[in-house]
């Protein structure tokens, strides 16, 4: 199961619709692929999205494969981001000099950028699985979700 993420929203929206994207706390792979049976309420947004996109069995399997390909790396990198942020917080309240704090901040930024790139690469692969119509529906779904929950950005 994916943990609550660090960053990257719909760069997919930029890719699909040319809209401006903002960081999101839910990785795209977790939004498209439902958790194993029994772990997700049947009316969850993942299931609604799957129904709305009308993904065929081959598409579902391909998306699941993409999710599995990136899942472990994303989880590991999120943990690194979390640890780096914790270290930065400790440095900020401690007696560390400015340069040490700045270096740790740059490390957090680097890890966030790497996480964003990982999400983006997975989105590019998922994009190839969807039809143009499904891409449009997915972009609309993400826009609605972002408008309903603006604090998750």
Brief summary of the model shown:
This protein is mainly alpha-helical. The protein contains six helices and no strands. Helix 1 packs across helix 6 and helix 4 packs antiparallel against helix 5.
What this model shows, in words?
The structure is a single chain. The chain is mainly alpha-helical and 153 residues long. Helix 4 runs antiparallel to helix 5. The protein is elongated, with a radius of gyration of 17 Å. It has helices spanning 11-17, 28-32, 45-53, 57-93, 98-129, 132-148.
Gyration radius from CA atoms, angstroms: 17 Å
Strand content: under 5%
In this structure, how is the largest beta sheet organized?
Answer: none
The averaged pLDDT comes out at: 77
Tally the helices: what do you get? 6
State the shape: elongated
Would you tell me the structural class of the helices and strands?
mainly alpha
**Unreliable stretches covering 5 or more consecutive residues:** 1-26, 33-42
Helix percent reads 55-70%
**Through-space gap between termini:** 21 Å
Question: Oligomerization state of this entry?
Answer: single chain
> How many strand segments?
0
Summary tags:
153 residues; mainly alpha; 6 helices
Break the fold down into its secondary structure elements and pairings.
Elements: H1 11-17, H2 28-32, H3 45-53, H4 57-93, H5 98-129, H6 132-148
Helix pairs in contact: 1-5, 1-6, 4-5
